[in-house]
Amino acid sequence: MKLLRPRVLLALLVDVILVVVFVLIGRVSHKEDLSLAGILTTLWPFLVGLLLGWFVTRSWNTPLRVFWNGFGIWLMTILFGMILRAVSGQGLQLSFVVVAAIVLAVFLLGWRAIARLVTRPRRGRTA
Question: If you placed Cys at 38, which of 33, 55, 61, 125 could pair as Cys (CB 3.0 to 4.6 Å)?
C-alpha cells in the first residue's frame, strides 16, 4: 500500500508537525493556555482539514509535489480548519484567517519546494 511507504509517511508527519507548530506559535503569541486540552482544541480542525487535503489530492502518490498536492492540502487545511473552528464555536476573525493562510502556505508549500530542490536529480554534471 502506497500510504505506508516511508517517503509518504515522512511527508505526512512533516505536514502534521508543521500544523502543530503553527498552532503552538499562535497560542504562545496570544498567551493562551498551553495545556494539552487547549492545544488540541485549536489543533483538531486544522488536522481534519489536513487529512481531508491528503485524501482529496491523493497525496500518497506524489507527496512532494507542490502543485497540485501541496496547494490542495494547504487549501483544504485552511478551508476546513476555519469551517470547523466556526461550527465548534472557536470563532473567526479576518486577520486570523489571513495570517493562518499565509503561515500555513509558507509551511505546507515551502517545505515541499525545498524538498523538491534538494531531491531533484542533477542534470548535465559529470563527475
Answer: 33
Between CA 101 and CA 12 the distance in angstroms is 19
Centre a 10 Å sphere on the Cβ of residue 122 and count the other Cβ atoms it contains: 5
**How much is the pTM?**
0.89
Say if 124 falls within a structural domain: no
Cβ contact 51:84 at 8 Å: no
Residue-wise pLDDT for 15-61, tens only, equals 999 999 999 999 999 888 889 999 999 999 999 999 999 999 999 99
The domain total for the chain is 1
Largest CA distance in the chain: 60
The larger pLDDT score, comparing residue 6 to residue 121, is at 6
Domain that holds residue 75: 2-119
| 63 domain-assigned | yes
